Queue: 2 jobs
Job 1
Amino acid sequence: MERTITVTVNGKTHTASVEPRLLLVHFLREVLNLTGTHIGCDTTSCGACTVLLDGVPIKSCTFFAVQADGRRITTVEGLARDGELHPIQQGFKEEHGLQCGFCTPGMMLVAKALLDENPNPTEEEIRWAISGNLCRCTGYQNIVKSIQWAARRMREAPAAGR
Amino acid sequence: MATKIEELGGVGVCLHRKEDERFIRGKGQYLDDIKLPGMLHMEILRSPYAHAWIRSIDVSKAKALPGVVAVITGQDLAAHNLAWMPTMSGDTQAVLATDKVRFQGQEVAAVIAETPYIAKDALELIEVDYEPLPAVVDPKKALEPGAPLIRDDKPGQTTNHIYHWEVGDREATERAFREADRVVALETHYQRCHPAPLECCGCIADVNPATGKATIYMTTQAPHAVRTVFAMVTGYPEHQIRIISPDIGGGFGNKVPVYPGYVVATAASLLLGRPVKWVEDRTGNLISTGYARDFHMRGELALKGDRIIGLRVKVLGDHGAFYADAQPSKFKIGLFHICTGSYDIPAAFVEADGAYTNKAPGGVAYRCSFRVTEASFLIERLVQTAAYELGMDPAEFRRRNFVRKDQFPYRSALGWVYDSGDYHRALDLALEKLDYARWRREQEEARKQGRLIGIGIASFTEIVGAGPSHTFDILGLKMFDSAELRVHPTGKAVLKLGTRTQGQGHETTYAQIIASELGIPARDVEVQEGDTDHTPYGLGTYASRSTPTSGAAAAVVARRVREKARKIAAHLLEVSEDDLEWEPGRFYVRGAPEKGKTIQEVALAAYTNFPQGLEPGLEDVCYYDPPNLTFPFGTYAVVVEVDRGTGQWKPLRVVAVDDCGVRINPMIVEGQIMGGLCEGFGIAAMQQITFDEQGNCIGSNFMDYLLPTAWETPRFELYETITPSPHHPLGAKGVGESATVGSPAAYVNAVIDAMAHAGVRNIDMPLTPDKVRAALEEVGLAE
């Protein structure tokens, strides 16, 4: 019944035997103990569970772990390198882009995918990019500013954004 | 050059948040992130019917599923007298249904299994034989003769009527209405909505079979109160109960009540001797936990010339199947009687009735201080309506009726004493920043071109920060709060409080208070909350009460510690205490400022070189009973454009002037205001939990219950005035809810204003395009 999958998560390769119905978010949280990816709605609506699949944001609460077999996943735990914050993480802190912090990992990963593709997005483009992710605390304005902060920093020092 | 306070990170500094570091790294520890050895998982079976007898429940197939450890029904709980529990409004609520189900989503049984997947599988194997009954979801119909009786469990309950409640002077108010030369009325339904924090509710109950200690990790905004309630309800010794509220992914009032899941998980852990985790899914959260509002209101203003001389309000509250409003014991509809708002109204009278319906219980204060949102909405909508009837500018009408600055402290007709305010200044600033006169001209111009622009204002006054204890209690527990400060020998400190942050930034702001009051840098102060074994007693965080109560306690306890430090400093400097002056972080000898001791030096001496006769150590605790509530206020001004074809509306400008007294961390204050403005927009535009005739909940997931995203949420322009609270030690007032309370009326007033020239006076929230379109059609404005 179980299937063996191999998934590269934050640069590290994991092989595990999982039930085919196991959701990716549960694989990350329960099997790999990467609890920075949150569950907010179960219906692909809120984006708290957003991770990057080969660099593209997906909602891991409606994605089976077996679908990630052979693929590359980035979670919030993979943003910082050697303890050094990613500019997007710094931006969220600098611009007060989080309050309760529950939506933050998903927001930051969507922001990463956006900035990797578009280093100088307009406010409209940022708002559109994060519109699949809900935040109940901040009213979004500071999240937009956080991403703008990160975009500036990454343009100034491209190595920081990797 | 940075001032001393800036270096310390004291009050008034936009200090970056201490808590951010773990959240941005994905290292927060929310409830579902906690795993205990041997932990089991619980899932709850919910009723598909809004109203039905339970003929029988067969759990045998579920029990037989491999991996299932136990299945619990109401009958099992009844054997331990736990099938029902008390609510915060003096009613009872079923934990697991024993006789019948009274709303869709009600808890019927629970499965405890080795994994959540097995527990969910087992739910589908439970066979419940229901006998459906007619349901009633409209409180007006619920009160009609012959309506299905919902609470037949309550002896003597023969109708769905819960309470009748009155406040104010009926006679004086009737007299005002007789003397009035004009009466303006507004009837509106403040829709049922749900706070929907992004993290759902849950708990892990861990009853240690050897010691009997019950450690319960719980998504709660009020851990201490929950501990006491658990002890009282179950008879379990309170010292054997430890509630730990870990990182909370937003609360907004939704995490104040005690939910059946908490009780069942605890009973299961006690029974099985293993930790039991229960985390509800989003549907469970939306259909069963604390909803908000659902108030049918009729308000009338008695006018004499351009002055309001009386306010009369009738409320019908829809409370669902159990009257479980989270509110102080003394009141039936919370603090709704702040409904005279920012206006000097000589006579006012409110009467309210409550009804049971086949809907979820709750009535929580959703980012609001106990029904203040409904009150603020009603008066701000009424005032605009009155201005139209008088043919007067709504801003000018407000100005003429405001409580004046020189009237504070101001006693309202409904009995509150407003601590401080300057309503004219906030309004004037908002209008100036908006460029109100220009927008009125634009509105005229636009109309000529066939476009609809509206300008809406709300000049709200809130009432937040309960106590004082003489008026406020929850289930008898007085609403004070606490702070305990310990300064360690090396001059670092730990501050513990009775409140519980859910995103408000307490770990930063409370440390800033200590920085200002005691001169220990904020980075050297660790703030702890949420663990009842390790923090002083308090009533928790909701109703914007943290800064008014625990924030005040933090300031007071720091001052007490400073007074002890003064004695030690005097000893070290060999001078009299009276000869010492204080500057942030340092005592020095008057007239010889170079001779002094820092607070860090004093802290070390408190453990190594203290004067004879003085207790060693440097710590204290304060239980703060506020002398009054605080009354934050402000003016929000919104410009919208309404599409005559689709009925869609879009905010073009949102200007917010907030006055919450002294701001401890302006960055955090502004963050909270923007969050509230967004939620206010969501409530005005889209958020509603509604039901069909059979009582099926429409809005049971985030595809049906709409929340604003970054795309449609407007940009906010924030400004401030500062009118300190005269009784708070720092002059601060609560602020976390101001914008949710004040802004819905501003958005709605703006949409109505766009159509007011054609006679539109009201559309009930949420202002969805179809409703706006219908209103446009009715007055011939539709395109």
Note: The beta strands of chain A are 3-9, 12-18, 50-53, 56-59, 72-74.
Job 2
Amino acid sequence: MPKIQIPTPLRQYAGKQPAVEVKAATVGEALADLVAKHPDLRRQLYTEDGKLRAFVNVYLNDEDVRYLQKEATSLKEGDNISIVPSIAGGATSSDDLPGFTGIELRSNRDMRSSLAFCR
Amino acid sequence: MATTLELKPEADTLTNEEILRYSRHLIMPEVGMEGQLKLKSARVLCIGAGGLGSPLALYLGAAGVGTLGIVDFDVVDYTNLQRQIIHSTADVGRKKLDSAAEKLKAINPLLNIRKFDTRLSSSNALELFREFDIIADGTDNFPTRYLVNDACVLTGKPNVYGSIFRFEGQASVFATKEGPCYRCLYPEPPPPGLVPSCAEGGVLGILPGLVGVMQATEVIKLILGKGESLIGRLLLIDALDMKFRELKLRKNPNCPVCGTHPTVTELIDYNEFCGIRGEEKPVETAVPEIQVEELKRRLDAGENLFVLDVREPHEYQICNINGYLIPLGELPKRVHELDSSREIVAHCRSGVRSAKAVDFLRQAGFKKVHNLAGGILAWADRVDPKMPKY
């Protein structure tokens, strides 16, 4: 089964696992299976209209799926999918703990968050 | 394919002192006299003298890079010392620039150090970058990342990139003529502030060492024109599993900065680009607050106050005031554990997270909630000086 590597900031939405095995024939199906297994990830990876977020890079093995057939890229046994978020850390010395400054809590169902750790 | 940098050959000889100092370079065919002269002629600008900047500057200085520029406006504090190895305990309170320059001079008095005591901005970056051959990015935030990238593309300087988070790192070389830039990889920054929880913060102290040394290696290779550069490759480092992976990066022909029809032809407002509007603290000031002295007095008087701690469990272990722990991220689904008829005082480390919690609880119908102004840090400062601060 193909495996999806989960980057550190997203692991808390994926049962703290570093990788998740999925049943899928394409990259799109793999991601769909991932969010089906871990619904909290959906908001991290997709916009409200169901598109992959622009700052979420998805790699099949070492290749960016944007340069393959995107979500239609087919998978074979043993393939490795990676979600690669942008990270900005380097010197971290600000007032509050890094990456915190603005969580927004709206309601039980709309708790916004993302894989970003800007600031 | 090795990338050759066009260096102005200012240095044409090494002194006997330099020959002795760099002898372990000189006897290597990959460096030799020619390479060492290239290093001596090279001008490298380090953005930041923090976690990544520390090993970067130390190794580049030791290796004989002729001119090392450092941009930093920060001062050393105790929390830096766990990873920013260019600074020592005695430097706490000093400018990082001064502290770093002193260490570099001690290692290599032949080094020409240029200190820029300023925040890198759209108004100074281009001018600054033009005076250097290579830019090494050791910053800690998205606006500066995009600023460094764009300024590198616009001035034609390679951007030796490193970034870290907890125990994961990334390294690459961006903005060379033949290779992709940071925007080819990440056209847009993630929206600001939509961050899961404070538990996500922090960094393993050795990680910037690992990644900063990789950046230093890439800088040296660019100067020497030797080896296989990280151009077009993103190296992913997982220090916890000690696994290194690499991903292919491609130059995006539609890249807004380095593509065939660029739309970004001058530096922009990067705070705005990253969706950050000034130094805002919107929620914090909008919620009712209680001062630590008042909380202490009322608790001592035996009043029926409910103290809610919205930090993470591992923070609670560092210090606490016996509050009821619900991490901010869990608050929406655990709100039923709270009694809305009681008066609640929410606190976190510094008061930012608990302000969000108070705001959230008020929207959820809680009437008597206060934010502990300044958080447990203020409590440590003004009520219980024995309490550790972190």
Note: The helical segments of chain A are 8-11, 27-37, 42-45.
